[in-house]
Amino acid sequence: MPLPPRVPDLPALDLLLSVIELGSLGRAAEAHGISQPSASSRIRYLEKLVGLPVLERSTLGSRPTPAGALIAEWAGPVVEAARQLGAGIDTLREQRDSRLHVAASQTVAEYLFPKWLVALRTSAPGTTLTLEPGNSATVARAVLEGRAGIGFIESPRAPKGLESRLVARDRLVVVFAPRHPWARRTDITLAELAATPLIQREPGSGTRTSFERAVAARVPGWQPAALMELSSTTAIKNAAAAGVGPAVLSSLAVSAELASGSLKTTTVTGLDMTRSLRAVWPAGQRPAGPARDLYAIARRPVAAGS
Question: What is the third-level CATH fold of 10-96?
Fold first, then answer.
């Protein structure tokens, strides 16, 4: 139910109480950090709103009219309640800012989040942070159910009920053991890759979803065939290096193995495997407190996909 139209706003009532307490409009203006003309304008607004003079001004200062004294008496508890409300809101914000639960896909959690955490410690040193790694579907559920204040996924777009923003780009690469036949080639065709069963992440993984959508967009009617499904990026890398079969993983996840030679890669002609890494939060909301800080850090340029 809306307030009656003649109820003054809180700043005007608070100023009136200060004028009565301090005995001077000038001193009250100084106490509120505003100019005396601004204070006079605020009092005139109050008087116009209630339809009665509330102050008597003289060379000796300002004192309330009978109506002003009565309005001030009623306003006292209202202003005090507003101060308590403000203090309560500050407490809630402090509680929110003291903890942050983040859900992140495995690629983000393992290869990007540690760098973000260092920067977050500088901007929000008092925040206790909890990281929940998982695949992109798990991350989305954590945010939708309110367990996580912000999430980071590898899927091409956010699930229903979530808003998303691009924070980085990554590139998927085909990797295999040094003795695999593809290791002797500078490139393979999309048709060859599409016909080869791969070591894959589990369904719901952003890496798997991004790869399958990229191939399906170029090969009509293609049905993926997994040689093996593993829920750990490390397990997939080890299986590929042991010669079980090729895999498709984030370039961030295999940079060390490619540098050491324990895994090899090749170009896939006719297939763009660049993908987006996205921050997600509930639709209709915006990240606040340390979640907002982390989102800003994540959007800084990174060497993803190199």
Answer: Arc Repressor Mutant, subunit A (1.10.10)
